[in-house]
Amino acid sequence: MFAQQKSGKAKLDDVTKILTDLKTDLDTPKLSSKQRRQQLEQLKVYGRDPTNADPIFTQDGLRTLGRFAFKEKDTAVSQEALRCIANALLLQQKARQILVDLGHGSDAAEKFKSESIDDEFLLSRILFLTTYGANLDYTELVNEHHLADSINAALQRHADRYTEPRRRTKEHAAPMDLMALSETLKLLFNITHFHPDLSQHFTSSITHIFKILLHRDAPTNPLDAPISFLINALLNLVREEGTGSATQPHDPDLHAALFPSLEPSINTTHLTTILDNAIQSYPASELDATISPLLTLLRRTYELAPSDVQIAMQSRLLPSDSDRTQPLGKTSSLPSRLLNLSTSAQTPALRDSIAAFMYELSSKDAATYVANVGYGYASGFLLSKNIPMPESAIKDAGLAGGSRAVPVNPITGQRLDKEQPVEMPEMSQEEKEREAERLFVLFERLKKTGVVNVKNPVEEAYRSGRIEEMSDSD
């Protein structure tokens, strides 16, 4: 059968004839299941290029395909019709609203109850495409056709494949399984993005998504699909306080999913590991697009976390004592890389996000923030947010005490006992005078910013009598 090679008017005539024959067969069945499948397969081939395939994208054509897709009992025939519809929705946006007007949105939601991996893939793609350019009522699909329950069940089946001994080895890595998982996660993301009030219906999927993340082998690029789809789906389910009834910090279901009682930090630790690997794997020019969702997810999770999990996250993400053997940002640790990204010109979207996260990890306290990252990294963020700096912040940041046993340089964050002595030639009297004048000007400018109230040391020295006027001859 070489009809797929036809083009122009011959192709249009053949598409019209196939749809006419299929429509007639719906009213007066004469074709065998094999013949129906062959006709739909041919129509699918034609539909990959919309040129001279117009009848497929009409109301009459989609009605015919819809009846085979959602009413046909033969699975192979039904899935071929679903493939034709999925191609049509992808290539012609107008087809999406036509499908919705025909009532096939609810049909797709009902059929999603199937446990077939092929059905899941095709139905997820069809429903995903109708989230753009169509007015499908997803609240109705969730409340009346149990679409959320079907999606949660599908994700649970994916998660169970990683640990269920009855499954054949590596079934979760089969191409169709990966495609179905990706399409379902994309659908979940769009539903919760466009309809955030429906997020609460998908809370049970958080556990399934983390199970997949924890058991899945890390790809060469840590945020390649489906990892990126898993992260994005979580991003809409773990919403900030006050953005939905399912996202309040004391919601027991959300809390239990994020912080399992046996290992409360297991999920946040794994997300932090992915972040660490991703920063090392992607060039700086790609980091804005790749890790921003993950960083946002970590920030939201931190806000909801119990104190012991917050402490564990602080230990992984804030500079440690070993980082302070050099000026902060000079080691190869995750906190050092984050600090460098917070000032990188190549990551404009991440700069403020990372700085804000470090501030949140510091209990949103300016003095603690300066103590954790050094004034050099903290000053820009504090100034941009108009956050006042306590007068004692820089002084206290360098003192030993609390968990820090050795004083540090409050500007660079480096331990004072690890600083290398700087060998410089003795300054001439003229150089000393110029340096004093430069410092005087710098301190006057700093006072005018209002960020920190400082006393000019040159002025103080003059008032205290430690500076004396010299004669012109001297």
From TrEMBL:
<dbReference type="Pfam" id="PF10165">
    <property type="entry name" value="Ric8"/>
</dbReference>
<dbReference type="GO" id="GO:0007186">
    <property type="term" value="P:G protein-coupled receptor signaling pathway"/>
</dbReference>
<keyword id="KW-0143">Chaperone</keyword>
<dbReference type="GO" id="GO:0005737">
    <property type="term" value="C:cytoplasm"/>
</dbReference>
<protein>
    <recommendedName>
        <fullName>Guanine nucleotide exchange factor</fullName>
    </recommendedName>
</protein>
<keyword id="KW-0344">Guanine-nucleotide releasing factor</keyword>
<dbReference type="GO" id="GO:0005085">
    <property type="term" value="F:guanyl-nucleotide exchange factor activity"/>
</dbReference>
<dbReference type="InterPro" id="IPR019318">
    <property type="entry name" value="Gua_nucleotide_exch_fac_Ric8"/>
</dbReference>
<dbReference type="GO" id="GO:0001965">
    <property type="term" value="F:G-protein alpha-subunit binding"/>
</dbReference>
<comment type="similarity">
    <text>Belongs to the synembryn family.</text>
</comment>
